[in-house]
Amino acid sequence: MDIQQLNFTYPGLDTPSLRGINLRIAPGERVAIIGRSGSGKSTLARLIMGLHTPTEGQILLDGLDLRQIDVADLRSQIGYVSHDMPLLAGSLRDNLTLGAHYVSDERMLEVAQLTGAHELARQHPLGFDRPVGERGQLLSGGQRQMVLMARALLLDPPILLFDEPTSALDNSTEDTLRQHLKAWANGKTLLLITHRMSMLSLVERLVVLDHGRVVADGPKAAVIEALRKGHIGQASV
Q: If pLDDT is split at 50, 70 and 90, which confidence band does 234 have?
């Protein structure tokens, strides 16, 4: 993935949310994007998913501008989880297999076990047919995140894009999920937006955003050390 001279300003605003972003993510690389609230991390994720169109610059995937790639094809290549994604009214099964009802029950169960979402079925008399309510209101925030993670992994995409995927999970559940992901995501490209230091064990490289700009990019240990010494703008790590 190549991000070239990317600028983005939300409609109606004067101040850009992203300015001159240049990043290259190699296949199989594991990268965390960190920074203070409002630094542009989630905006960058939405641009990568084609939910917004760059004001200037481009994002290339396998040499193609994202704007040339069919949305369905793009989303089959990227497993995306956002901290603010709602579930749909329906059953747990409906939400796990959204848009991919041809997937076998065995595969659905595999990813549900990986993320812990299978416990939601085990604890309810209707199993995977249990209702989740409008926007998933019958589940807790952490339970919704487990379902979204399972959905993102269902089609075994080569790229994983996780935006605060464990923000509502307790430490024990996060630790279990992190250990499963470390093994399962081997060989995949991982882009992780997080404020939890523990989740950085999944990555090898850190990118720091501040006021919509990249202010640091390098090996994890070196960037963390520079942050601690105050050599880089503040970031939430």
A: low
DSSP 88: P
Q: Any idea where the domains of the chain sit in the sequence?
A: 2-228
Rounded to an integer, the average pLDDT of 98-110 is 89
What angle is formed at CA 229 by the lines to CA 228 and CA 230, rounded to 5 degrees? Answer: 90
- Return the number of other C-beta atoms located less than 10 Å from residue 117's C-beta: 27
CB 60 within 8 A of CB 142: no
**91: pLDDT confidence band, cut at 50, 70 and 90?**
very high
DSSP 131: B
Distance CA 97, CA 217 (A): 36
Fold of 2-228: Rossmann fold (3.40.50)
The average pLDDT across 108-124 equals 95
Q: Residue holding tokens 């993670």?
A: 149
